[in-house]
Amino acid sequence: MRIVIAPDSFKGCLNAMNVALAMQKGVQRVYPEGKIDLIPMADGGEGTVEAVLSAVNGRKVEVEVKDPLGRSISANYGILENGKTAIIEMAAASGLPLLLPEERNPLITSTQGTGELIRDALDHGVEKILLGIGGSATNDGGAGLAAALGVKLLDDQGKELAPGGAALGNLRKIDTSGIDPRLAKVQIEVACDVQNPLCGPEGASAVYGPQKGANLEDIKILDAALLNFGEQLSELCGTNLLQLPGGGAAGGLGAGLVGFLGAKLRPGSQMILDVANAEEKIREADLVLTGEGKTDFQTAYGKVPVGVAALAQKYHVPVIVISGTVEGLPDLLWEHGVSSCFSVAEGPASLEEAFSKGEEQLEREVWRILTVWKLGTQASAKNIN
């Protein structure tokens, strides 16, 4: 029996590796001789570096960068074992958790620190950068990131813009003559799990601005500023960034990365699956286990369990989703290859209540589910014989 275990983190409770290890213990109680492959997953947000380095060999690099408000902090990213690929989380340098609630202000927060992480990765000689952009505190379209890499964003007086999203309303010229030349030889892939455009009612400012501290007036300012920015960067790069699906991700960073760096946006779970060589492992598996903190209707729109199940579906491998809590049973999950879905919570409960006993509870649930699974497969084999 070969089983692949590829869960996301149970946010606020367990990281992806701890979820995978707890599931593994449950599996081993039922299949002590089974072959188990662990692939801790992430979607590009917090925990992406940890998940990738848990799935493949690599090391962490620590570097001093600027936080969203320009203060010096220590942040880290990963370099994979080949030394040629870096895995970076923007949340490490430009993330919302770095700010106190009263400090959140997307009018002035900047992605400069994320650009500094990229620059340090270039100093280490990488040829490929995998960038997760979840959990941002910013709404500057990647202007701060670009500035850290040598781009100049100028107003009508030829002066460089102040940091933050609001200043983009004064943008009159983008000067890329000083951009780091090493970027031309580096492939950049971005884990992006949203389809929001740069501007408008479904854009970066309107949808994600409030959680970053923006009020209604701020949203109007930020949206107009991103529109100005997007029009000018689109003209410069030759791509209509205003219509780019995912351009509004991370406060417009999705559009900025495509426009400034020629980056490729792709679903985060797919990126992690590729790095971990998951397709080969899943192709040979008899069963796949995945899960997340909360499975609901949003899961069908690019979350980890669906990404894992879609890959398993190619090889007709059954997939069981075991999550902290489950709300409803969306038909879309079955269409994406999910065989069955279970909750660790016993009855209606919050994720915290579901995990009041931590990993032991998850281990026990996996044991229960696979005990029934084993009986079912044995009965099927007997009937066939």
From TrEMBL:
Database matches in SUPFAM superfamilies: Glycerate kinase I
Molecular function in Gene Ontology: glycerate kinase activity
InterPro entries for the chain: Glyc_kinase_flavodox-like_fold, Glycerate_kinase, Glycerate_kinase_RE-like, Glycerate_kinase_sf
Gene Ontology BP, a term: organic acid phosphorylation
Signal peptide stretch: none
Family: Belongs to the glycerate kinase type-1 family.
UniProt-recorded name of the protein: Glycerate kinase
Species this protein is from: Desulfosporosinus acidiphilus (strain DSM 22704 / JCM 16185 / SJ4)
